[in-house]
Structures are given as C-alpha cells and as structure tokens.
Amino acid sequence: MRSGAVAGAISAAAFALVHDLLISDIWFSLPLLLAAGIICGFCLGWTYGLLFDKPSLGSWFRYNALFVGLLASIAVVSELVYEPVITLAEVMSGPPGSLYLRAMPVTILTIFAISVIVFKLYGRKPMQFAAIILTSSVLVLFLGLNVSLMGLVFLPTDSLYLVAENFGLIFALGLVYFIVFALLEWRKLARNPAHVTS
Q1: What three-state secondary structure class fits 123?
Q2: 10 Å Cβ neighbour count for 79?
Q3: d(Cα 161, Cα 27) in Å, to the nearest integer?
Q4: Which pick of 66, 84, 174, 195 has the fewest CB atoms within 10 Å?
Q5: pTM of the model
Q6: For the chain, where are the E strands, in sequence order?
Q7: CA 49, 52, 58: angle at the middle one, nearest 5?
Q8: Which of 177, 180, 139, 170 shows the shortest CA–CA distance to 18?
Q9: 30-51 vs 161-184: helix crossing angle, rounded to 10
Q10: For residue range 84-103, what is the model confidence (pLDDT) as tens digits?
Q11: Helix-, strand-, coil-residue percentages of the chain, each rounded to 5
Q12: What angle do helix axes 30-51 and 57-81 make, rounded to 10 degrees?
C-alpha cells in the first residue's frame, strides 16, 4: 500500500509534466493531482495485495493493464454511445456538472464491467470484489470523469490530436505507476517472474 501511494504521487507529478509539455500548464493543481495520485495508487496497491498471494512482474503488469484499459474503455464507449452536445471551447472553460451526470450511465457500466473482468480473472472472495469495485470507482472519480465526456464533445477534425494526447496521457500515467511500483517492490515481484495468479 505504501509503495502504491508513493508510485501514485510520482506518476501524478509525471502526468503534470507531460500535460504541461503537450497540452497546457497545470502545475497550479499539483497538490490536488498528488492527493489523487496517492489515493488511487494506494487503492491499486491494496487491491493487488488482496488478489495476489505470490506477486510477480507478470501479474503486476496485467493487473495494471486492466485498469488502464478501464480508463481507455470509458473514452471509447463514450464516443460510441453519445452524440456531441458541447463544443471543445466550452469544455475547456469548464464543463457543466450536468454533462457528468449525462455520462454517468456509461461510466458506471464500464466500472462494473472491468471490475467483473478483474474479479473473474483473479478474485475468489466477495470482499475482493468489493475492493475491486472501490478501486475502479476511485480511479474513475479522480482520473476518468473528464474522459467520460469525450463522446459528448464536438471535435473538429483539426482537434483530433487532442484525443491522441488524451490516450497518451492515460498510458503514460499507467506506465510510470507500473514502473515506479515495480522498482519499489522489486524483491517481491522478481521472486516469481512467471507466476500468473495467486
């Protein structure tokens, strides 16, 4: 859990750096980003510890990939399900709260679907499923709410690069978290390199 929280903080700082280089300066919100990173990282580390008695690099990679897939899936499903109702300029100046409510059905459905997949692959007990649901919900609350709006935003063709940047940020965040946690927990993870499940 400690390694998860530390890795979450470092990946949040890396997110701010990449966002600053590619999109815009968000250093002013670094304290909030760090808090979100710590909470999300803690939950991911905690749930991983509940699911895997014998941690390994392989299972750690696959576990993280599923949660990165959760965030990416919300964006993809949002694009497939919703019709655009707001311009990019309006979103950049602050999307209305009603937009998040409109996107909530897809958000909840995606959280539940990914949680079921993770549990079917690695879980055994009801408490583990509750932990997976909690972790998925926390990740979406802190990292995925804006992603859930993608299908509701008019994106001119000359702005499609923003979609690529969004996915790039998701994958960069997940990659930094995976690497930092793996380095912090190297002794435990490297002990069972080929182990798949607990």
Answers
A1: coil
A2: 16
A3: 22
A4: 84
A5: 0.84
A6: 86-87, 153-154
A7: 110
A8: 170
A9: 60
A10: 888 877 777 777 778 889 89
A11: 80, 0, 15
A12: 120
How far apart CA 71 and CA 139 sit, in angstroms, is 8
pLDDT tens, 137-171?
999 888 888 888 888 888 777 666 777 777 788 88
Distance CA 152, CA 165 (A): 17
- The yes-or-no verdict on residue 196 having pLDDT over 50 is no
Query: Which amino acid does the sequence have at 18?
Result: V
CA-to-CA distance for 27 and 49, rounded, in angstroms? 32
Find, among 89, 87, 72, the residue nearest to 148 by Cα: 72
193, two tokens:
């390199």
Q: Whose structure tokens read 């510890």?
A: 49
Residue 120 near residue 191, CB atoms below 8 Å = no
Dihedral angle of Cα 57, 18, 169, 44, to the nearest 10 degrees: 40
Take residue 95 and report the two structure tokens written for it.
């999307």
Contact between 149 and 95 (Cβ < 8 Å): yes
Given a contact cutoff of 8 angstroms between Cβ atoms, the answer to whether 151 and 78 are in contact is: yes
Extract the tokens encoding 80. 């497939």
Q: Which residue has the higher pLDDT, 148 or 132?
A: 132
* Contact between residue 16 and residue 27 where contact means Cβ atoms under 8 Å apart: yes
